[in-house]
Write a structure and sequence with these properties.
250 residues; seven-stranded mixed beta sheet; globular; binds S-adenosylmethionine; 2 domains; alpha/beta
């Protein structure tokens, strides 16, 4: 008789042990898990936008890669792409990371041997060994003062991946992100060491002309680029400004 109980006791006796799937079966299962487009059932999560976000996360290869590599966010790959394309991380003596939560850019910077990294975000960030992380608003002069004194000198690189919480109203979101980028450009121009580099997230569309002109005036080389790791459907791209020049406007 081969009921379940008998089969189990056979296994416990050690006569017929299952040694796990073959390598090929395991790979097939893994492929199936990761490569099947995942859908979230309507019952559990009520908001359509939340469901869409979770589905996107589950089906995004960069999310999986980031989890496997230990990066706190897929955003790490954008900085790595920007570095590969422009050599952005050449001088990481003193770095400012504006809008640093949850911390993947700071992680990349520390891994690249940055000497001093100071990050700031509205949200709290879990500590990252060697980095000084501040919970605060870039529009708060006190928080910015704390940031500069932690840095012990002029930054050689200023990064901003800041994005305002989205409202769903395209134009409002665009304007709010442009304002954050403007703030980052002004901060870079007021503080960077001569020869230093700057990079900020911007959103495509509308009000960007002045920003570009300001960067052109103050940097030797300014480019706009959308890294391959930036989601195709997102209006996000990055302005990279290399070689800060001394200007009268400072
Ligand atoms: C896309 S996330 C940054 C991801 C980060 N680069 C990483 O790799 O983990 C954008 C961040 O900008 C922050 N942010 C938005 N407005 C800010 C402000 N006024 N001051 C400081 N941080 C701000 C948000 O809180 C958010 O955490």
């Amino acid at each position: 008789m081969t009921d379940k109980k008998t089969e189990r006791s056979k296994t416990e006796d050690g006569k017929r042990r299952w040694k796990g799937p073959s390598a090929a079966d395991a790979e097939r299962a893994r492929e199936k898990t990761f490569n099947t487009k995942k859908k979230i059932k309507k019952g559990g999560i009520t908001k359509k936008s939340s469901r869409a976000w979770i589905e996107r996360q589950l089906n995004d290869p960069y999310v999986r890669r980031a989890q496997e590599a230990g990066w706190r966010a897929r955003a790490a790959y954008k900085l790595l792409d920007l570095d590969e394309k422009f050599g952005l991380l050449k001088n990481t003596q003193r770095v400012v990371d504006l809008g640093c939560a949850p911390g993947s850019w700071t992680q990349v910077l520390m891994q690249r041997g940055a000497h001093y990294v100071v990050g700031i975000d509205l949200l709290p960030v879990e500590p990252i060994a060697g980095a000084h992380l501040i919970e605060g608003d870039v529009n708060d002069p006190e928080a910015m003062k704390e940031m500069m004194s932690a840095l012990q000198g002029k930054p050689t690189l200023v990064l901003s991946d800041m994005a305002a919480a989205t409202t769903g109203h395209k134009q409002t979101d665009h304007i709010r992100t442009v304002q954050l980028a403007e703030m980052a450009v002004q901060f870079a121009i007021n503080n960077l060491e001569i020869g230093g580099n700057f990079c900020t997230k911007v959103f495509q569309g509308g009000a960007q002309g002045d920003l570009k002109a300001l960067m052109d005036e103050n940097f030797a080389d300014v480019r706009y680029w959308k890294p391959p790791s930036s989601r195709a459907g997102s209006p996000e791209m990055f302005a990279v400004a290399l070689g800060f020049k001394q200007t009268k406007k400072r």
